[in-house]
Amino acid sequence: MEIIHLSEKNVTECAKRAEEVLRSGGVVLYPTDTLYGLGADAFSDDAVEKIYAIKEREEGKPIHCIVADLAMAEKYAEVNDCARILAKEFLPGPLTLVLKKKKGIDAGITRRIETMGIRIPNNDFCFAFARAFGEPITTTSANRSGAPSARRIDGILAGLGERAKEIDLVIDAGELPKNRPSTVVDVSSGHPVILREGAILASDIWEAIRAEL
Fold first, then answer.
1. Which of 39, 72, 118, 143 could crosslink 28 through cysteines, CB 3.0-4.6 Å?
2. Domain named YrdC-like: which ranges (predicted)?
């Protein structure tokens, strides 16, 4: 396991190294604007299976991804008016939008499901990482499924136990602030359904939508 300590001066270097790991089918533990996440090529069946194994997560539970911007998301998913309203108001930020995937997209995180969840974190490393890789990257909290999410690398690795050895690269940004996870909104039908209220309040989601109607 390789560990790189992230600073303001080496963001580009860290993103480049993380990209190299993903290109080789590996897994990266990295910071976001909410929690530490597990990153892999979102459209690689093998890489996504590694994420499920590390988290000991049930296959039926979807894993979301980060993208650099909506233009990247539009290559793989249908970005409707509702999605654009919420993206304009809250992205980059702690919001996950669940979109209907485009025809022909059926690998990795989209295998056997009709949607994909996208994030654009308000985080310099995430932006550089997504830009460097040029395709969606998995983002799911770095913990065993159902267990609490630690804010420090040592706590995360301890919590994952033997599975932590399957992580190829750690981008260590130190202890992250105590944040709630992203708010998850399913807009795949064109009508918003809040699946999880997190850092963004449900009332703020509805207010943003009402303001545009």
1. 39
2. 12-200
